[in-house]
Specification:
This protein is an alpha+beta fold. It is built from three helices and seven strands. The longest helix is centred in the C-terminal third of the chain and has 10 residues.
């Protein structure tokens, strides 16, 4: 019997997601996380050099039923549907999910949540990577050995 690898190869995504590699790894493992069914679906967009957006389809959820928590390098998005007390509807077909969800994202270093917006059933969570000044690349001037020795001799 042949075994197939059901984990998608996202190696090209790692190369294009500079500075956001942990989020790419999370996307790779999302299908096998704790029986995760892929609900609700989401996109991860690169908006600029250090700006990202997670867009999650949360149709049917109100702002009061959604909760976003950022702690350290983890972003947790929860949706909790409030059960209707006197819901006497009789469905012939019910294809719209009315279940709660919990989605955890592993954020890369120095990535923080800067805002969230719910519009037309889509939850947009904006992220930015702010590298501290001490960790940013800086240009180092190269002096020639000859000019360095001639300066000390002349002095």
């Amino acid at each position: 019997m042949r075994k197939f690898n059901l984990t998608p190869d996202l190696t090209p995504l790692y190369r294009s997601a500079i500075g956001f590699d942990r989020l790419a790894k999370m996307a790779e493992h999302a299908a096998v996380q704790n029986g995760n069914t892929g609900y609700p679906p989401y996109n991860i967009e690169l908006l600029g050099e250090n700006r990202y957006r997670i867009t999650m389809a949360v149709a049917g959820f109100s702002m009061q039923e959604l909760d976003i928590t950022s702690e350290g390098d983890k972003l947790l998005i929860k949706g909790s549907k409030v059960a209707a007390v006197n819901d006497e509807r009789k469905y012939l077909h019910q294809g719209i999910a009315e279940r709660g969800f919990e989605r955890t994202f592993q954020l890369a270093d120095h990535v923080k949540v800067v805002g969230a917006e719910l519009e037309n059933g889509l939850l947009n969570v904006d992220l930015v990577r702010e590298i501290p000044e001490a960790l940013k690349a800086r240009k180092i001037q190269i002096n020639s050995a000859r000019s360095a020795t001639s300066n000390t001799i002349e002095s």
